[in-house]
Amino acid sequence: MKNLTNVAEYNPNGFMKAVRIHEFGGPEVLSYEDAPMPEIKHGEVLVKVYTAALNPPDWYLRDGYRSLPPEWRPEGNFPMILGTDISGVIVAIAEDVKDFKVGDEVYSMVRFFSVGESKGYAEYVSVPVSDLAIKPAGIDHIHAVGAPMSLLTAWQFLVDVGHSYPNPLQAHPHIPVPLNGKTVLVNGAAGGVGHFAVQVAKLHGARVIGVASGNHELIVRELGADEFIDYTQTVAEDVIRDIDVVVDTIGGPASGRFLKTLKHGGALFPVYPLGFADYEKAEKLGITVSALQVRSSGAQLAHLSDFLNDGRIKVVIDTTFPLHAAREAHERAAKGHIQGKIVLTVA
Predict the structure, then answer these.
(1) Which residues pair with 234 in a beta bridge?
(2) Suppose 202 and one of 59, 153, 224, 232 were both cysteines; which one would form an S-S bond, judging by CB atoms 3.0 to 4.6 Å apart?
(3) Could you tell me the pTM of the whole model?
(4) Are residues 88 and 51 in contact, defined by beta-carbon separation less than 8 angstroms?
(5) Which burial class, exposed, middle or buried, applies to 332 when counting CB atoms under 10 A from its CB (0-12, 13-18, 19+)?
(6) In which residue ranges of the chain is pLDDT below 50?
(7) Per-residue confidence (pLDDT) for residue 11, from 0 to 100
(8) What CATH number should be reported for the domain whose range is 4-148+295-345?
(9) How far apart are CA 153 and CA 148, in angstroms?
(10) Residue 209: helix, strand or coil by DSSP?
(11) How is domain 166-289 classified at the architecture level of CATH?
């Protein structure tokens, strides 16, 4: 191709291995197969993928977003490569790219939110430089890839939205609240977003209460939680009151149960707000309910690299699977009770 700085291994007319779907469905529709090499456009680089991470939008898309109303469900542009989060090394750049070079180790949440355009479950992926950041040198590719979507979600909810894209599920923009001296409850505190929300809130001066199953207590406390509630033994909303902020990483219609834990002027942040119906009740209680749709941001990942590099923010890994075992990785995700992140190893 013209206008590219290439290395020998880049053959835009060649093939690579990727995990694709040819129809919507369960984990069985994931197929490890040959796929065309990506082409890179102006403002993009080609990354040789070392690791890719699983995130809920991966299985929502694989399933055809069946949880959405029919009119919101995307069309299937098959075959489709899933996956947003990648870590790897740049092997080719467009001529207009100045801030990155061949050989740079990088990580990214690629083109999110866009349906089916991220294409991370593959040996190579093209990445807009606006989505890209240098990988934190102090951690390996397995841990680096666990960060982008989940950490950006926690950061954009709690600290800095970093974009102006509207959330189609609410009319008002999401505005983070000051956390210093506040009490923050994180529901799903051991999961992908949850284990970062615990750390981000703690870093910003909050007292943190983590809610998860009992077998996750040790790691949640190690990440900074001041108090832990085992939801299999105790119903958090029956025993907790006067909370300033609730981050409900599970979300959905049941998020309303946390309203009674919040003080007047508090905030409920459901990471998955679809189905929440208690807005009128929240308004009467003087509680703000707000959510956002996380968006790619190379600038925020570059900022967060410092925290990951020096250990102020840690990435917890649940399990790793080779790329060709993406089906098994999705089956693991479907079992739930994930501690941190599930990662695919590629190179």
Answers:
(1) none
(2) 224
(3) 0.95
(4) yes
(5) middle
(6) 1-4, 7-8
(7) 67
(8) 3.90.180.10
(9) 8
(10) strand
(11) 3-Layer(aba) Sandwich (3.40)
